[in-house]
TrEMBL record:
<dbReference type="GO" id="GO:0016567">
    <property type="term" value="P:protein ubiquitination"/>
</dbReference>
<feature type="region of interest" description="Disordered">
    <location>
        <begin position="409"/>
        <end position="428"/>
    </location>
</feature>
<dbReference type="Pfam" id="PF04757">
    <property type="entry name" value="Pex2_Pex12"/>
</dbReference>
<keyword id="KW-0653">Protein transport</keyword>
<dbReference type="GO" id="GO:0016562">
    <property type="term" value="P:protein import into peroxisome matrix, receptor recycling"/>
</dbReference>
<keyword id="KW-0812">Transmembrane</keyword>
<dbReference type="InterPro" id="IPR006845">
    <property type="entry name" value="Pex_N"/>
</dbReference>
<keyword id="KW-0862">Zinc</keyword>
<keyword id="KW-0576">Peroxisome</keyword>
<dbReference type="InterPro" id="IPR025654">
    <property type="entry name" value="PEX2/10"/>
</dbReference>
<keyword id="KW-0863">Zinc-finger</keyword>
<keyword id="KW-0479">Metal-binding</keyword>
<comment type="similarity">
    <text>Belongs to the pex2/pex10/pex12 family.</text>
</comment>
<comment type="pathway">
    <text>Protein modification; protein ubiquitination.</text>
</comment>
<dbReference type="GO" id="GO:0061630">
    <property type="term" value="F:ubiquitin protein ligase activity"/>
</dbReference>
<feature type="domain" description="Pex N-terminal">
    <location>
        <begin position="47"/>
        <end position="249"/>
    </location>
</feature>
<protein>
    <recommendedName>
        <fullName>RING-type E3 ubiquitin transferase (cysteine targeting)</fullName>
        <ecNumber>2.3.2.36</ecNumber>
    </recommendedName>
</protein>
Length: 428
């Protein structure tokens, strides 16, 4: 018979001790729950934010119907939302939505477990009392306080019962605030009973799992910080970028890669047919080509888009004048509807008001979508500059008899305006 090895002998001698340790572990009580205070406080904040998030669209809907409905039924809406959340969370599952996110649930001592249980496994009577203390009593307090303020209870005489009721109400509020502070200090000390209602009913929030790992996920916060930094960077960068210059460059690139530009670069000449040439010739008339030469086409266009009836020239007067001109000829003695003030001669040969043509040329420079200028409203030509129009009158023409018309001969002098700026010149 062989002698056992030393390690087999040691294993056999350790068997009684291992069996005693197993028996001790099986008969010992389970480890206590690890109490996480910040998780309980975060769950309460999450529940409040969820209720506000659900109430906000309802308040907006009521305010669109009537502004008084929002202020009148706001407490009732809050009560309805709180009761619905309480039924779907604590009553059915034993934990609010915020507590579920923190992996917590409500528990009661074994001695308080009754016969009639809710779907969550907690006693129905305890949950009814808890819902009354946490949902219904705050609603009643809000309604009573708003009614007291609307009825001027604080301003009543000291001997009036309303003033006495108000003093009692304020005393109860102060006492409740003091109790809430004391309960919070006790909660920070032992981590149990987050609120006064929980302490009165002996309901405590405990982790759902026995062993809790304190793993805080910062994924949402990191994503939020990235988006915040990205938006701040865009707010800093966008004012430095000229959208017009980018649009102008894109248009230039598009014109370079257009089929006509590609054909011209390859030496292929594109000859338009007779119909195209005739169509372009017919299109060489502007929108206001028929307007008399002594009237400003830009003023007429501005009046056609003006809806302010208080001004003498607007869209309605323009329509009326068009109907009158179609029905009967305009008398020569009548003043022009859109007279030209400080006439300026454009590069295409038409005359406009100084303020009108200067504004349009400045807008064309600011737009800078292409290298062309502003399109004339009379001949559809490209206007790149404008000069002061001076009428040369003879000695037989008096200033009072002066009439501006298309047959007046004139020459540009003194000042000229173009897209590049002002230039001063004199007429010899």
């Amino acid at each position: 018979m062989t002698r056992p090895s030393p390690w087999e002998d040691a294993w056999n001698r350790a068997q009684p001790r291992l069996a005693a340790i197993r028996d001790t572990l099986n008969t010992s009580n389970s480890a206590d729950y690890r109490v996480i205070r910040v998780g309980q406080l975060d769950s309460e904040l999450l529940d409040q934010e969820l209720a506000q998030l659900l109430q906000e669209p309802l308040n907006k809907a009521l305010s669109m119907i009537s502004t008084s409905l929002k202020a009148r039924f706001a407490p009732e809406l809050a009560l309805l939302i709180q009761l619905t959340l309480y039924k779907l969370s604590i009553w059915n599952t034993g934990a609010s939505y915020g507590a579920k996110l923190q992996d917590l649930r409500y528990t009661l001592p074994a001695s308080q477990q009754g016969r009639r249980l809710a779907p969550s496994g907690l006693p129905r009577r305890t949950l009814l009392l808890h819902g009354t203390l946490t949902v219904i009593l705050p609603y009643l307090h809000t309604k009573l306080r708003s009614y007291a303020l609307s009825s001027a209870w604080p301003d009543a005489p000291s001997s009036d019962y309303r003033r006495k009721a108000w003093d009692i109400l304020t005393s109860l509020e102060s006492a409740y605030t003091l109790l809430t502070l004391s309960n919070f200090v006790a909660f920070l000390w032992n981590g149990r009973f987050r609120s006064i209602a929980d302490r009165l009913l002996n309901m405590s929030l405990v982790p759902r799992r026995r062993f809790v790992k304190r793993e805080v996920s910062y994924e949402f916060m990191n994503r939020q910080m990235v988006w915040h930094a990205f938006t701040e960077f865009l707010l800093f960068l966008l004012p430095l970028i000229s959208a017009r210059s980018i649009r102008r460059r894109m248009n230039r690139i598009a014109s370079v890669i257009s089929p006509s530009a590609v054909l011209s670069s390859l030496g292929v000449k594109h000859t338009p047919d007779a119909k195209t040439v005739a169509g372009k010739a017919l299109q060489k008339k502007g929108k206001y080509w028929s307007l008399p030469q002594d009237q400003c086409a830009i003023c007429a266009e501005n009046a056609s888009m003006n809806l302010n009836i208080s001004e003498p020239t607007n869209a309605f007067t323009t329509l009326t004048q068009a109907v009158v001109e179609d029905s009967a000829p305009v008398s020569e003695t009548e003043p022009p509807a859109y007279p030209i003030y400080t006439p300026y001669l454009t590069s295409c040969g038409d005359i406009y008001c100084y303020s009108c043509i200067a504004e349009r040329l400045m807008q064309a420079v600011d737009a800078a979508e292409d290298e062309r200028g502003w399109t004339c409203l009379r001949c559809s030509s490209e206007v790149t500059s404008a000069e002061r129009y001076i009428v040369e009158m003879g000695s037989d023409v008096s200033g009072s008899d002066y009439e501006f018309s298309s047959d007046i001969s004139g020459s540009a002098s003194m000042g000229s305006y173009s897209e590049s700026g002002w230039s001063d010149s004199s007429v010899s």
